[in-house]
């Protein structure tokens, strides 16, 4: 296990190195730099001034020297300084990260609360009305675009309930109640597809387990059906379900970029998008690398959890 | 060493019909099974009908649409759905129904082009990696790992944002997201197939490596690959819609379902129909492709 973790961490480091080169080069292949963004389209600025600005940002250096400077900083734990805001990248990430994590956590919580019970009921009531409704619902959940779902919910709430979610962002510590009302809709929309995925997986895994011999034995012993389903079957069906849940966390981390745009939440996704538009290279590069570290750590954690839950799996 | 599963695709790999439970009395079970088969077929047929409808809409958009998508009717500005404009009109007096019909073109074009490109490139990479093994397998996998290291949607949005808005940006972004996924989907089965006796037999008969890979291994691994393609198609439509909504795909006045929704957001309270219908179109189209994907998976899964 220890050896496996070391190997995985090593391969993560290599991947990050590759990603750093990729992101760095891609950004520089795109036309326009931060200097053009700063000056704007209409301003008349002398070429000397432009050259001066480029020198200020180090854009006159060859690309490998710029790359070395950035990666050298990373190696010392310095994510760099944002060009447009003048703030350290790490501070900007720290400011935005709680929003993204809160959104993802609520979304996964909602997906679990809805998906697992729905899957269990669907499996135990196979081919009855409840099952069919759940399965159609899950398919719809997989098909609905997250931004449209958000728009329709807002429309519905404002027309029928005369209620509008607050527009201005408040963080949890300042005003917990207001923060939660703001987060409710985005988390629900973000979690819908995951809930559908989890429900489908739970149903399939439960059906698999419910068909096995030991469940029949447990039922034949005269155990109450509820006990058989929740204790004997669910525990064994849980392992693949947890894998799916772990994967969903990673997918949700990506999904936040759209949800944050739709609901104008100040999270990491919008930060990346904004930095790309502004050609704020250090901010884009370091933030993407940061997201990659989070994403890969979640994936690693899922693999380790899997081995922990199922002792037959050894790395 | 196990590699993490590609995000997105495998998350839903547990098929519904794959598992059978003998729960009820024999007679009821038989009845249940035939009901199940019938519903399954009905759903696949419904999916196929939906897909044919959307493709038809895209191909014959000019003839089907009651008006041109950018035709402005100043007598009907932001008018409710009525006999004159079934889905209503937007604030420029453009017919929402006509725009939805034309929007099918962008959605399908981007989805099909990007998935075709990524299936070709990803398939080739996966076949090479799986069949050659060794150093090339390792090299290809390390490169793929880089693309798997960021969440798929963020990757797509990031690429499109860097390249600047446009239909081709969307195609490129989605193709880049799916190429590594298809490479992985192809590689696994190829690896398993390569170890079989018949491959050695054909090699012994003097077939070249390329011939073995293309003529003998590929046909044996292609069907699950194609099923994943159908599932990916539905996801690609969703990603395109997201990109469009964020203003990164087709640009106005060209109608796409996503950018219609984006435009409609401003008039949500006065003219909600601008936002309702394009979203329904996206959902039903994605649903149709999901139904087909589910159905194909059931058919191809030998355990069902």
Please give the alpha-carbon distance between the first and last residues of chain A.
Answer: 6 Å
Number of strands of chain A: 0
Helix-strand pattern of chain A:
HHHHHHHHHHHH
Gross geometry of chain B: elongated
Largest sheet of chain A: none
Total of domains of chain A: 2
Q: Which class best fits the helix and strand makeup of chain B? A: mainly alpha
Output the number of helix runs of chain B.
Answer: 10
Could you please say which CATH topology of the largest domain in chain A applies here?
MetI-like fold
Radius of gyration of chain B: 23 Å
By helix and strand content of chain A, what is the structural category? mainly alpha
In the CATH hierarchy, the architecture of the largest domain in chain A is Orthogonal Bundle
Shape descriptor of chain A: globular
Parts with pLDDT < 50 across at least 5 consecutive residues of chain B? 1-26
Quote the distance from N terminus to C terminus of chain B: 30 Å
Helix content of chain A: over 70%
Question: Can you summarize this structure?
Answer:
The complex is a heterodimer of chains A (315) and B (304). Chain A is mostly helical. Chain A has helices spanning 2-29, 34-39, 47-56, 63-75, 89-124, 129-143, 146-160, 176-210, 213-220, 225-262, 268-277, 281-309.
